[in-house]
Amino acid sequence: MAPTMGAFLVVEAKKSREEEEIRLRKRNMELERELRKSQEREEEMRKELQRAWERLRIAEEAEERLCSQLGELEAESVHQAREYNARVLSLMDQISRTHLPQSSTSSSPALFQY
Fold it and tell me: Residues 111, 95: contact at Cβ < 8 Å?
């Protein structure tokens, strides 16, 4: 091999290594940029998840309050229904006692007479 040919090959090899190094540095920069973007997206998703958890916690607390209020209202409505039923029975009893003497003398029921 001639000395110029050997020098040419050395220069070409060095040039090829430099080009490869430049290509690898560019690729490394691209990968680092993609990594930063990925980390930013991950952080944003983490924040979004935290906000979703907070909304869920608030919704669950509201659901518990509503269930408690509903239970209280159901208990109150049952109590009122029982009072109403007792009052209706009492009024029916009063009506039947007040009309009992009249019904023995009258041929038709006296329930709705005025």
Answer: yes
Q: Tokens 């209202």 sit at which residue?
A: 73
**Which range of residues forms the domain containing residue 36?**
12-95
> How many separate domains does the chain show?
1
Q: Rounded CA gap, 89 and 111, in Å?
A: 14
Query: Is 0.85 surpassed by the pTM of this model?
Result: no
Residues whose CB falls within 8 Å of the CB of residue 102, separated by 6 or more in sequence, listed in order: 110, 113
Give the CA distances from residue 98 to residues 32, 92, 93, 102, 111, in Å, rounded to whole numbers and listed in that order: 97, 10, 9, 8, 10
pLDDT digits (tens, 9 = 90+) for 36-63: 999 999 999 999 999 999 999 999 999 9
Contact 110, 103 (CB under 8 A): yes
> Token pair for residue 21?
């190094």
